[in-house]
Hints:
The chain is of the alpha/beta class. The chain has eleven helices and eleven strands.
Amino acid sequence: MLNKIKRKLDRAWFNFRCAGIYDTPAAKCDPSSHVVVVSQLHHPDLTMYMLAAKSFAQYVKPKSFVIVDDGLTQEDKRLLSAHFEDMQFVPRASMGSEICPTGGCWERFLTLAAKNQTDYVIQLDSDTLTLAEPVEVLQCIAAGRSFTLGTSSGTHFIGLPEASRNAHSDPDPHVQNHAERALGEYPHGEQLKYVRGCAGFTGFALGTLSMPAIEQFSLQMQKLVGQQKWHEWGSEQVASNFMVANVNDSLVLPVDRYPFWEPGLDVGRSVLIHFFGTFRFLGGMYIRQSLRLIQRLNS
């Protein structure tokens, strides 16, 4: 109970300190671009999304921003439409699949697949901040190359048998660990790859992500781990990790330049930081970097 109250207070303080993002100029879009930025958003994360999307748009001007609406108010939508030149909203319920799980960001992933038929798509989580020019990302876009965030335990692509062996050393019952252990049984797994990356910032080159491929993977994993386990929150990240790993010439972004925030991290080399989960508000770095962004946007 105390932790829940603290999280609410931390978020309220963050929103108060960073309210200046609503006074910054609108983010420009480029109608000639072939990039679409997709995010899933609900009302409590509105200020965070504004910071994430505007910081990214300093360096990458997409054709449009697409939001999978996970509980926005009409006022939220009005604000977002005023702050981004081309903002589109997709009702979460409209992106379901009879084969894939519902909830847990699966609708966001399926939206990425739908948009990927005509554009290079980038999934951008609301709790990211782009601090400097993301050179590797810009190079991937220019070369038509897919990418994903790495993690401390996922810095490069590996075969499914190795991914399964690695997961067996961790008895955690979370669906991601459970699914990764099962990858050793995936049909023709010796020919396929995986990375223990993060779906929070991932790019798919035009035509490399499809609904049938996602559904096929989801169906097979459901057989391996069981329907109840596969429908738990976190299975979508396993699917994203698998899909990007099996796109030819994909890149795992270097973790020292695209890190997860934790107290003590040297942000001097950081290009994009994922302020994820437990450590998000610890140390005040998220607020300090957000205030610097607001100042830059106003200058």
